[in-house]
C-alpha cells in the first residue's frame, strides 16, 4: 500500500518572513519556526526569535510534533571573525503521529529548496538540538 505525501503550500507571509530573517542585523542566534497549519492547509510561521540559543529554543518547542526550523547561528571564529550560517533543521521526534512525520519528511527537501537554504539537517529528537551539535555540523563542512 503506497501513501501519497501531501505537498505543502506556503502562506505568502512565510517567504516574506524568511527574507526579513535572512537580512536581520542582530548579532545573535535567531530562529524562525515553521509548521503546517491543518486549518489553513498551509505552511505558516509559528514564531520568530531574534535572540535564542539552541538550548532555550528546544525548551519552547512541543516535544511531540515535527517542526521546520530556520536557525541563524551566531558563530565566532578563532581568529575573531563572526559569521551567521543559516541552517534548515527538520526535527521529527519519535512518538509523533506517523502521518505528520511522513508529511514533514516528504516535503523537507522541497521546503529547504524553496527557502534557498543549503545546510539541511534532520534530527529524530529535540535532545539532539544543541550548540555542540550545531558546531559539529559547521566543522563537518
Structure characterization notes:
By secondary structure, the protein is of the alpha+beta class. It is 32% helix and 26% strand. It contains four helices and seven strands. The strands form two sheets. A five-stranded mixed sheet has the order 2-1-3-6-7, covered by helices on one side. A two-stranded antiparallel ribbon has the order 4-5. Strand 6 (86-91), helix 3 and strand 7 (119-123) form a beta-alpha-beta unit. The protein is globular. 24% of the residues are buried. The mean pLDDT is 90.
> Which whole number gives the mean pLDDT?
90
**Secondary-structure element pattern, one letter each:** HEEHEEEEHEH
The share of residues in extended strands comes to 25-35%
Helical coverage, percent range: 25-40%
Rg from Cα: 15 Å
Describe the strand arrangement of the main beta sheet, using strand numbers: 2-1-3-6-7
Poorly predicted ranges: none
Q: In terms of structural class, how would the helical and strand content be classed?
A: alpha+beta
Global morphology: globular
End-to-end Cα distance: 39 Å
Question: Please, how many helices?
Answer: 4
Tell me how many strands there are: 7
Largest sheet: 5 strands, mixed
InterPro entries: ADF-H (IPR002108), ADF-H/Gelsolin-like_dom_sf (IPR029006), GMF (IPR011171)
GO molecular function: actin binding; Arp2/3 complex binding
Protein name: ADF-H domain-containing protein
GO biological process, one term: negative regulation of Arp2/3 complex-mediated actin nucleation
